[in-house]
Amino acid sequence: MRLSVALHHLPRIAGLAALGASGLTMPARAQSVTLTDDSGRPLVVGGASALGSGLAGPATTNAAEIVAEFQRLCLPDPAGAGARAAASSLALAPADAVFPAEGKQPEARVAQWRGRSASLSVFTGDDAGLKKRAIAITSRAYVTTGPYGPFKAAGTQCNLVVSLPDFAAATDVPGALSAAFGTPGKLVVKKTFADGYWSAAAGTRINFTAPTTSGGPQPVHLSAQILEKDSNR
Fold first, then answer.
1. Cα 168–62–60 angle (5° rounding)?
2. In Å, what is the CA distance from 158 to each residue of 24, 35, 187?
3. Phi/psi class of residue 153: alpha, beta or left (left: φ > 0; alpha: ψ in -120 to 50)?
4. Listing from the earlier edge strand, what are the strands of the sheet with 42-46?
5. Given 120, 169, 188, 221, which is the most exposed site by the fewest CB atoms within 10 A?
6. Which of the four pLDDT bands, split at 50, 70 and 90, describes residue 104?
């Protein structure tokens, strides 16, 4: 089941209404966590329909500092980011995303750390408890909603979501990524959104997404992702 809507033309709640109409429900205590799908897009699993939900305000660091912190946290081994989170300049604290058991669906727990302006998550491939949970993919000017399954996280990955003051600040991030990782495999920067990917050592793909927002702080998603096979991004 897939539903894509333009953010400019439909209130954010429409995506959640679509889930209800399909028979999917979200438990009252469901949390959200941001992962990465096989195309490198941010995959928000749980009770949120937008990237960066729950962050209190924009970070005061610049693009170069954000990319440097992303490298320190997520590389060279994305799965080991948790051991480095306590020393983060983004003041991250443990805050695992816990999805309660529902019927035959077991409880799911995804390692996560959160701060005022950023969140960090680590995924190593065990998604048994995430099946059929509500998801939202916010990419460019559209949001796609549905159940976890057709859309799912891919590969071992480290995800960093940072709230920036505005879209102009987000457009500085690709330059900092290119300074760190060289020429991008693909980079698209438009008036209201930007995304792309780079290649790092050991077969790691670096993903960047700054989706269109309706104003206010601009969330950006950075991830280091090790895939078992080539992506179609």
1. 95
2. 28, 8, 20
3. beta
4. 3-6, 142-147, 134-139, 42-46, 32-36
5. 188
6. confident
Winning range, highest mean pLDDT, from 18-22, 146-150, 212-216: 146-150
Answer positive or negative: Cα dihedral of 171, 172, 178, 183: positive
Cβ–Cβ under 8 Å, residues 132 and 24: yes
Mean pLDDT of all residues in 175-187: 98
By the 8 A CB rule, do 83 and 93 touch?
Answer: no
Structure tokens at 232: 């179609």
Beta-ladder partners of 157 = 123, 225
| pLDDT single digits (tens) 65-99 | 999 999 999 999 999 999 999 999 999 999 999 99
Q: Taking Cα atoms as reference points, which of 173, 169, 161, 165 lies closest to residue 220?
A: 161
Average pLDDT, the chain: 87
Q: 126 is written with which tokens?
A: 């065990």
Cβ–Cβ < 8 Å for 219, 213? yes
How far apart are alpha carbons 146 and 151 in whole angstroms? 8
Other Cβ atoms within 10 Å of 73 Cβ, number: 28
Percentage above 90 pLDDT, the chain: 77
Inter-residue long-range contacts of 193-199, CB under 8 Å, 24+ positions, other chains counted: 193/140, 193/141, 194/170, 195/40, 195/41, 195/139, 195/140, 197/40, 197/233
CA 193/CA 37 separation, integer angstroms: 18
Cα–Cα distance list, 178 to 45, 91, 136, 144, 223 (Å): 29, 26, 28, 28, 14
